[in-house]
């Protein structure tokens, strides 16, 4: 059964499917990346800064830039080798989102509710588009391109993205666009892929992609999350193939033990051609929204386990950084990426170009 743009639990009409396919094929978001670049995607446009209003949400709205700075400062990444994505256009977004949803984002009140910053409602929408939604659209472009790079290089990391609370028709939880659903639909058409596994290890339930791929056998969802926090989406839970519900206060050892068991089960349940890894750092001890107690070292081990899971089975993997609501998140993500490099699970040196 094909995933529908508005309600993915019902078949999509053939003409709508054709329109979706044509939009994907005509998109400029897939482009050739030279071998002098590493499959790590980032733009300074990811960062959100607008009169200090961004500080009213616990999310570090410059997290993406901070990750990049740490990696460059540590000498493991050359800024010139990063890949700059394009902004997702309206036609790109229409691959999943109906026109009515995109139109709703032209209301600043709607956006303020999605990003959970009430004063945004008072800002003229053209500024909201420029200062809030444009950075999100750039990150969407990064997530979509990451799938292409992952298939070409074996792995890719978008230093942004992972807006897993946004479905086709509804945003929320700081997620305005469904980048996970979009990157998968692009992969179906442009990469000739028909089996995708989502491993969602953000502290929150990934109700957006779960809603979008309800009853779609092409997508297998493993979601491990704290059941005692937002979003409490009981409808979306029905569409999780492998659900691991944690309790608040889960510590590192127990968390990693649950993950080991989950990955062992996943190996026997589904044979994906692509893994989309939503690697939220809101599992960290002290995160005000995640309410779990995983150490920074635990996050690095978690990421290592997921990359190893894909490496052992020779499955391309793309990683999205998703949620994380402490200033320390950027440092933890950077340290985890450095660890992945040390373990030879990723290579931050651009390959020598073949002439």
Notes on the protein architecture:
One of its GO terms (biological process) is epigenetic regulation of gene expression. The protein is α/β, with parallel strands linked by helices and 355 residues long. Helices cover 40% and strands 9% of the residues. It has 12 helices and 7 strands. The chain has a 7-stranded parallel beta sheet, sandwiched between helices. Strand 6, helix 11 and strand 7 form a beta-alpha-beta unit. It is globular and about 45 Å long. The N terminus is likely disordered.
Please tell me what the overall shape is: globular
Q: Return the domain count.
A: 1
Radius of gyration: 19 Å
Q: Do you know the CATH topology?
A: Arginase, Chain A
Q: N-to-C SSE series?
A: HEHHHHHEHEHEHEHEHEH
Total count of helical runs of at least 4 residues: 12
- Biggest sheet, open or closed, and with what strands and sense? 7 strands, parallel
Strand-pairing-aware structural class: alpha/beta
Low-confidence stretches: 1-11
- Under CATH, the homologous superfamily reads Histone deacetylase domain
> What is the CATH top level name?
Alpha Beta
Return the average pLDDT rounded to an integer: 93
Work out the helicity level: 40-55%
Approximate strand percentage? 5-15%
- The CATH architecture term is 3-Layer(aba) Sandwich
**What's the β-strand tally?**
7
Strand order of the largest sheet: 1-2-7-6-3-4-5
Question: What distance separates the N and C termini?
Answer: 44 Å
């Amino acid at each position: 059964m094909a995933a529908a743009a508005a309600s993915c639990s019902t078949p999509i009409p053939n003409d709508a499917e054709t329109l979706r396919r044509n939009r994907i094929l005509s998109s400029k978001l897939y482009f050739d990346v030279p071998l002098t670049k590493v499959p790590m995607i980032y733009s300074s446009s990811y960062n959100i800064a607008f009169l200090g209003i961004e500080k009213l949400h616990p999310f570090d709205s410059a997290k993406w830039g901070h990750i990049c700075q740490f990696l460059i400062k540590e000498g493991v990444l050359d800024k010139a080798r990063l890949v700059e994505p394009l902004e997702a256009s309206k036609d790109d977004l229409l691959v999943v989102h109906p026109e009515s949803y995109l139109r709703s984002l032209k209301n600043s009140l709607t956006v303020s509710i999605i990003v959970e910053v009430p004063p945004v409602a008072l800002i003229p929408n053209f500024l909201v588009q420029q200062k809030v939604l444009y950075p999100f659209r750039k990150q969407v472009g990064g997530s979509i391109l990451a799938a292409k790079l992952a298939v070409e290089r074996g792995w890719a990391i978008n230093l942004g993205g992972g807006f897993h609370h946004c479905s086709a028709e509804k945003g929320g939880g700081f997620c305005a666009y469904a980048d996970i659903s979009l990157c998968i639909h692009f992969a179906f058409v442009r990469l000739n892929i028909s089996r995708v596994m989502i491993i969602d290890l953000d502290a929150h339930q990934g109700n957006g992609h779960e809603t979008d791929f309800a009853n779609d056998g092409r997508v297998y969802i493993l979601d491990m999350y704290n059941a005692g926090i937002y979003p409490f989406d009981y409808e979306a839970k029905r569409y999780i193939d492998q659900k691991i519900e944690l309790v608040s206060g889960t510590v590192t050892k127990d968390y990693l033990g649950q993950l080991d068991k989950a990955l062992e089960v996943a190996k026997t349940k589904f044979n994906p051609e692509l893994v989309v890894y939503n690697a939220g750092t809101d599992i960290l001890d002290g995160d005000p929204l995640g309410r779990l107690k995983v150490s920074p070292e635990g996050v690095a081990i978690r990421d290592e386990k997921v990359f190893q899971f894909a490496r052992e089975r020779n499955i391309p993997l793309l990683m999205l950084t998703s949620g994380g609501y402490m200033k320390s998140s950027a440092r933890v993500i950077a340290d985890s990426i450095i660890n992945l490099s040390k373990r030879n699970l990723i290579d931050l040196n651009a390959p020598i170009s073949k002439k």
